[in-house]
Write a structure and sequence with these properties.
This is 1-phosphofructokinase. Belongs to the carbohydrate kinase PfkB family. The chain is α/β, with parallel strands linked by helices. Helix content is 33%, strand content 27%. The chain has a single domain, classed as Ribokinase (UDP-N-acetylmuramoyl-L-alanine:D-glutamate ligase). A 6-stranded parallel β-sheet has the order 5-4-1-8-9-10, with helices on both faces.
Length: 315
């Protein structure tokens, strides 16, 4: 079982539009309503692969009730933590050329009692988990050290932790030695305080995060591929993608693929890239099923192209 923790879940509405035009009335060509949040997306991808998952998330108000209903309809077990504030609602506008514009609401502020209830719910469910995936931004009320406390408690319970967050929350958690962290290029650059212009820059930044405590770094470089840097070695992976429809949740699908395949080594990296590549070909934040995957399109190598210039450099 893969347990996911989403401290700031959302109700996500995605509209497909031909193009954005400020001040104009836009007519959508497609619409989706999905339960959102990075950990929620990981659970959705795990469930789409036919694996058991439990999603721990604070829920409040009508949007929170709808999130729970949508997850239940997808066969995902929900461990809700009731909160006084309403779960946030987000909007995404997906243009036909693959450009995505997102409007993310801040979400409710969690009280100290609600914060502790969230931690206690994770502790209670962790005994049955193969992995705990802690994902996304922290809502108002949670200190940057909250993820560090969750990682410490999970490790005391003997659980493996995958952490997908950024900024101070990531840096504060690293000394607790999360088993894998999953930054994108921008988050990786921000964590080490310097820009990334090449694949080699990303490798060196990943090594820095390992020096700060991360046991492994699964770094997403967008269209340039993914890196896995761990004590066992360094691998670089890419995948052929014919067309990008939406990149919403692609990184979350990638993390799910990594954990489903064991969470270590080149096989898990290949699974991560296959899931991420499949996700970008789907509408909105739809998660790929095994039928959507194309493992033959994935290449994994230990011969990392250190001098390759990134198509999407991180400032």
């Amino acid at each position: 079982m893969i347990l996911t923790v989403t401290p700031n879940p959302s109700l996500d509405r995605t509209y497909e539009v031909p193009a954005l035009a400020r001040g104009e009335v836009l007519r959508a060509t497609g619409e989706r309503v999905d339960p959102g949040g990075k950990g929620v997306n990981v659970s959705r991808a795990v469930a789409a692969a036919g694996r058991r998952t439990v999603a721990v998330l604070p829920l409040g108000g009508a949007p929170g009730a709808l999130v729970a209903d949508l997850l239940d309809a997808r066969g995902i077990e929900v461990a809700p933590v009731p909160v006084a504030g309403a779960t946030r609602s987000n909007i995404a506008l997906a243009e036909t050329d693959g450009v995505l514009t997102k409007i993310n609401a801040p979400g409710p502020e969690l009280s100290p009692a609600e914060q502790e209830s969230l931690l206690e719910t994770v502790r209670r469910l962790s005994r049955d988990a193969d992995w705990i995936a802690c994902c996304g931004s922290l809502p108002r009320g949670l200190a940057p050290s909250w993820y560090a406390e969750l990682v410490a408690r999970a490790h005391r319970a003997g659980c493996r932790i995958a952490l997908d967050t950024s900024g101070p929350a990531l840096l504060r958690a690293l000394p607790e030695r999360p088993d894998v962290v999953k930054p994108n290029a921008e988050e990786l650059a921000r964590a080490v305080g310097r820009p990334l212009a090449t694949v080699g820059d990303a490798v060196r930044a990943s090594v820095v995060l390992r020096g700060l405590g991360a046991r492994a770094v699964l770094a997403s470089l967008g269209a340039d591929g993914q890196l896995l840097v761990s004590g066992a070695g360094t691998w670089f992976a890419t995948a052929r993608v014919s067309a990008v429809r939406s990149n919403v949740g692609a990184g979350d699908a990638s993390l799910a693929g990594f954990l489903i395949a064991g969470g270590a080594g080149p096989g898990a990296l290949a699974s991560a890239v296959a899931h991420g590549a499949a996700a970008v070909r789907l509408p909105g934040s739809e998660m790929p099923t095994p039928a959507d995957l194309d493992p033959a399109a994935v290449t994994v190598t230990t011969e990392v192209p250190m001098d390759r210039v990134l198509k999407e450099p991180a400032p």
